[in-house]
Design a protein that fits this description.
By secondary structure, the chain is mainly alpha-helical. Helix content is 83%, strand content 4%. Strand 1 and strand 2 form a beta hairpin.
């Protein structure tokens, strides 16, 4: 009786118990849902981490690939630069050699031109000055005169006479002719060909009476006349010398000579 009374006396306990049971079921259900949600979150996080890691690995791999390609490109570029440097050096060397070749060719051309000019000058007339007179003479003409004069200076008078005689015959219009006649007469005087010497000295005076050698030629005529024992003729010649060339050294010598032969 007491038990029944208790049940009937406190009905709220049964309600409370029932509510607690329902609450417990709800709580248990909520806890299970929360647990399920945590697992999903963990799986999502893991999946995200895996994707991030995969992306990182892919990025690192791509970076390594890019770096390797860049390194190869840099090596290729460096190789091309070195090749270009070698080519530039080769071309520079070729240019320097070409410059040396051009310089050498220019030098040779200059030497050849000078040689040609010198050879041409040997055949071209040029101005010469002999006994204070300037005139134009062929190189061969000048050479022949100098050669004859050199023979005379060596004291080879027969050879000098022949050389000057050949010269005046070969070059009758030469500017050297008056001087050649003078030395031809002196060579004949040395060879004691006095008459021949007188003829050539007179030829000089007739050809160029104002020639610097003319007074000496007149004096030489007088000397030849003295050698021929023609003192009268020598005196006349010396008088003519003093009158024609009074200021010359030969005129002074003529005065002394006149004093001795009178």
């Amino acid at each position: 009786m007491k038990f029944a009374f208790a049940s009937h006396a406190n009905p709220w306990r049964a309600v409370a118990a029932a509510v607690f049971g329902v609450a417990s079921l709800v709580a248990a259900s909520s806890a299970g849902a929360a647990l399920f949600e945590d697992d999903e979150a963990r799986r999502a996080i893991i999946d995200l981490r895996q994707r991030v890691e995969a992306q990182r690995v892919t990025a690192e791999s791509q970076a390594r690939t890019d770096n390797e390609q860049l390194r190869r490109s840099m090596l290729d570029l460096q190789s091309q630069i070195e090749s270009l440097r070698g080519e530039v050096a080769r071309l520079t060397g070729q240019n320097e050699q070409l410059l040396r070749d051009v310089t050498e060719l220019q030098r040779r051309q200059k030497d050849i031109a000078q040689g040609v000019d010198e050879r041409l000058r040997k055949f071209e007339p040029s101005k010469v000055t002999v006994d204070g007179r300037e005139f134009v003479a062929d190189p061969a003409e000048a050479s022949a005169f100098e050669a004859a004069l050199a023979v005379f200076r060596r004291g080879e008078f027969p050879a000098a006479q022949a050389a000057f005689a050949d010269f005046v015959k070969k070059y009758p219009q030469s500017g050297f002719r008056p001087t050649a006649l003078f030395w031809l007469g002196n060579a004949q005087y040395a060879n004691r060909d006095y008459r021949g010497a007188i003829a050539n000295f007179r030829a000089l005076i007739a050809l160029a009476p104002d020639h610097p050698r003319a007074p000496e030629a007149v004096l030489s005529i007088a000397n030849c006349q003295i050698e021929l024992k023609d003192n009268a003729g020598a005196r006349r010649t010396l008088d003519e010398l003093i009158k024609a060339y009074p200021q010359s050294e030969a005129a002074g010598a003529a005065k002394e000579r006149l004093a001795r032969i009178r």
